[in-house]
Design goal:
4 helices, 2 strands, 49% helix, H-NS_C_dom_sf, bent DNA binding
């Protein structure tokens, strides 16, 4: 099924490109489906679940999520404004640096 692309006009060539790209997407989806079926068959043959191997639900909700990004208890509190706290991670807040410049020590700001 060789196509002589030199004989195609601009519209025909664009149409061919769109059809080729659509076909590429179909082939990629078919490949993913085949691999998924193979993995499920292997898990079934071994008598284990997806969750046992990969943990959690596994789907898109887990993908890309960093581990250990939960909230951390604060270690320091601003004496001038008790609402302001800092966990000790990341960049120091302005109030923390200002307190240190004013002569306070880290232990003075600890909760």
């Amino acid at each position: 099924m060789a196509i002589d692309i030199k004989s195609l006009n601009h519209n025909q060539l664009n149409d061919l490109i769109q059809k080729a790209q659509a076909r590429q997407q179909e082939l990629e989806k078919e490949k993913v489906t085949r691999v998924r079926e193979k993995v499920q068959a292997l898990l079934k043959a071994e008598g284990i679940s997806f969750e046992e191997v990969f943990g959690g639900g596994g789907g898109a909700a887990v993908r890309g999520k960093r581990r250990g990004t939960g909230s951390v208890a604060p270690k320091y509190r601003n004496p001038a404004d008790p609402e302001q706290t800092w966990s000790g991670r990341g960049k120091r807040p302005r109030w923390f640096n200002e307190a240190l410049k004013a002569g306070k020590k880290e232990k003075d700001l600890a909760i």
